[in-house]
Design a protein that fits this description.
With 173 residues, this protein is of the alpha+beta class. It has a single domain, classed as Haem-degrading domain (Beta-Lactamase, 2-Layer Sandwich), CATH 3.30.450. The protein contains five helices and four strands, in the order ααββααββα. It has a four-stranded antiparallel β-sheet with strand order 2-1-4-3. Strand 3 and strand 4 form a beta hairpin.
């Protein structure tokens, strides 16, 4: 029994060492890009009609999959336009959905980019920035090359939240 434990631990340790070599190196934070990243201009605020269409599409995708979600749509000024909580969706995700939408519009990027920065590129400093969230499910809404708002969804796993938010965002062209 003891030998099996030692062998299992040795196998686990070897796999961790092998995996650690496959992580990407952190980006060079001293590099100066030629262009400003995520430089999408802000446009006029999303209309209530469009915001409701985004929300309807997101909640429709969620219902189709049997996922209980909270979804928020913000305008280009980072103000809440519409919000809905599906029956039975977890209460903690109300604020999280709103946070994801707010960050996606203010930071002009999907919250998955922030999650990837923390998880994959080891940019831990991102967690120190005011009003950031490193969790996917927040997506800017871009129309005519300008940000008109954002959608944020929460209640499932990050990947479930992202699928639902993308369904809502797909209504904006």
């Amino acid at each position: 029994m003891m030998l099996k434990s030692h062998l299992a631990f040795a196998a686990f340790s070897a796999s961790m060492l092998a995996a650690s070599g496959s992580f990407a190196q952190a980006p060079n934070l001293d590099a100066v890009p030629d262009k400003m990243p995520f430089d999408i201009p802000y446009g006029a605020p999303i209309s209530l009609e469009k915001a409701e269409a985004v929300l309807h599409a997101a909640l429709g995708e969620s219902a189709k999959r049997g996922w209980k979600m909270n979804c928020a749509v913000y305008d280009s000024g980072a103000n809440l336009v519409v919000f809905k909580r599906m029956d039975g969706a977890q209460l903690a995700s109300i604020a999280i959905a709103e946070h994801k939408a707010r960050v996606a519009v203010k930071a002009r990027r999907e919250t998955k980019a922030i999650e990837d920065g923390v998880q994959k590129a080891n940019l831990i400093y991102l967690t120190t920035l005011d009003d950031f969230i490193a969790s996917r499910g927040g997506i800017p809404l871009v129309e005519g090359g300008k940000i008109i708002g954002s959608v944020g969804c929460s209640g499932g796993t990050g990947s479930q939240d992202e699928v639902v938010a993308k369904a809502g965002a797909a209504t904006v062209k």
